[in-house]
Amino acid sequence: MINGIAAGAARSHSFAVCAGLAIAGMVALLAARPALAAYEVVTVTNGGTIDGVVSLSGTAPTEAPIKVTKNQDYCGQSIPDPAYTVDSSGGLANVIVYLKDIPKGKAAPTDPVALVNTKCMFSPRVQGAMVSEQVKISSEGFSVTKPLPSMPMMIKVKCDAHEWMHAWIMELDHPYFATTGADGHFTIKDVPPGSYTLAVWHEVAGEKSAPVVVAAGQTVKSKITLAAK
After folding, report:
1. In CATH, which superfamily holds the domain spanning 39-107+175-229?
2. Considering the entire predicted model, what is its pTM?
């Protein structure tokens, strides 16, 4: 069953996914971001690449495992808290990296944004999307595909059945975004040459930005460090 609701200015979409554990996933608006003038899709020739790492300074806080309060036969007794996923060199996973205010460039991705429920956790934890992209939510062999809202915003995905299940989708006007991997690494390709602001967002460590200059056909290296909170 799929339900869509709209209540005043706080628009939201509800996805009820009935499979196995009768998971109900709600997509709730966290904060709308101001829209730019319409993003223009152009052919990008000899574009540049931003290749970098997001690191966490200091020692990541030790988070207690998530206590599973229901469906323990499927979910397990506890789940490691994924808020800070840091490798041995300090690379921070699950960080959205994106360009601010880029007016034109490559076309949007054609594949739906994927969100999978596995063992009572959403994967990926964090990801970017372009406005109005389709999102495919899958659980136990069942899936539902719905369009995302038509304006830039941060979306928090919640499971109505399991209160610890969360994921985040940052909707942007453009497709120049990436999510850091397990080693904190990210790559953004086909960037039109120019000067930009590179921004990062992490669910706990917050936001930070830095200038970046992209040259035609070149790869610029970037390293951004966030402080644990």
Report:
1. Carboxypeptidase-like, regulatory domain (2.60.40.1120)
2. 0.84
